Amino acid sequence: MIPFNKPYASGKEYEYLKDAVASGKISGNGKYTKLCQQFFEKKYNFKKSLLTSSCTDALEMSAILMDIQPGDEVIMPSYTFVSTSNAFVLRGAKIVFADSEKEHPNIDCNKIEELINPKTKAICVVHYAGNACDMDKVMELAKKYNLKTCEDAAQAIDSFYKGKPLGSICDVAAFSFHETKNIISGEGGMLAVNNENYINRSEIIWEKGTNRSAFFRGEVDKYGWVDMGSSFLPSELQAAYLYAQLEELDTIQNRRKEIWNMYDAGLKNLEEAGKLTLPKIPSYATNNAHMYYLITKDLGERSRLIEHLKKDNVNAVFHYLSLHKSPYYKDKHDGRELPMSDFFSDTLVRLPLFYELKNEEVQQIIDSIQNFYK
Ligand SMILES: *Cc1c(COP(=O)(O)O)cnc(C)c1O
């Protein structure tokens, strides 16, 4: 069976894990945490990077930093992972779900302004499949209405919007290193802070609401409880694994892009014949090869295709179900129809894409899809 995902280890991970253990410090904010954070700050110009135990954690930190209060409204796409909305729901926010674009699961930036009212506090975009949302539009609205902004960049490592690194555009951004992402540490994430006013507070929230980091830098002579916070930092073991992956970033990205391009070339004829739709990368976005997905005609066809692939020993999956229709939120949603979100919920299929996937396996998957549409 070709699995949907297989977590990759370059080999260096074990060496760095051993080194971390031998150093006598495996709790958080040590050598490897700092190496990882510096890597991101240097390469992508994030003003501050803080490793977290997950992207979910980084999103929760974002909601605290943005000072989201009960009753505040936060606009985000309905077609996303639950953590995007949970982070704000935990602070008492009302989520105002927006629809996806016609050609892409990303939030339709032309449909945001009509959702803004005096209670609107923030916009949280999701760069689906690592492809940028139309950020000029988002930032223009944020400026016009004085809104805070957040990027769910869980899938968006090493990807760009008009040359700007994703994660460097909004006040804050959240990345994921979950084993299904491009660069991994099992579970893991990172908060990127770009709003200068959030920098000091971000470190405090990260360290359980204490000014412990400033204390260890010698900036204050004692440390204590100065704000709300939680234990958001990962152990050095996760950071050591992650650092080995970051050193291999280009190798990993290049192989993923090769696989992505093989799929795209191998399935093009089916799109030309009107049988299915392949991913569309907006002109202002780059492709970081996080995901290869297909759009089928309808739900029935998707189910049959997944079943067919399974018979051919290929594990393909679908994912998000519109959050505005979820058991938890359907009664809280304002009743607006979000047809594109529902459409992608019903029709999108993700194909296996991982570093160690072999060319012959990619070809086998392409052949199986070709046979299905014959
Ligand atoms: C993976 C993912 C998350 C959650 O990441 P974790 O690190 O597992 O918490 C959040 N949002 C999106 C869009 C994701 O793809």
Quick overview:
With 374 residues, this protein is an alpha/beta fold. Helix content is 37%, strand content 13%. A hairpin with a 2-residue loop joins strand 6 (160-161) and strand 7 (164-165).
Rg computed from alpha carbons, rounded to a whole number of angstroms: 21 Å
Overall mean pLDDT: 97
Q: What portion of residues belong to β-strands?
A: 5-15%
Unreliable residue stretches: none
Number of domains: 2
- State the oligomer: single chain
Helix content: 25-40%
Shape: globular
Structural class: alpha/beta
Description:
By secondary structure, this protein is an alpha/beta fold. The chain has two domains: 13-247, Type I PLP-dependent aspartate aminotransferase-like (Major domain) (Aspartate Aminotransferase, domain 2, 3-Layer(aba) Sandwich), CATH 3.40.640; 249-373, Aspartate Aminotransferase, domain 1 (Alpha-Beta Complex). Helices cover 37% and strands 13% of the residues. The protein has twelve helices and eleven strands. The strands form three sheets. It has a seven-stranded mixed sheet, sandwiched between helices. A two-stranded antiparallel ribbon has the order 6-7. Helix 1 runs antiparallel to helix 8 and helix 9 (249-272) packs parallel to helix 12. The longest helix is centred in the C-terminal third of the chain and has 24 residues, at 249-272. The radius of gyration is 21 Å and the shape is globular. Bound molecules: pyridoxal-5'-phosphate. Pyridoxal-5'-phosphate binds next to helix 3 and helix 4.
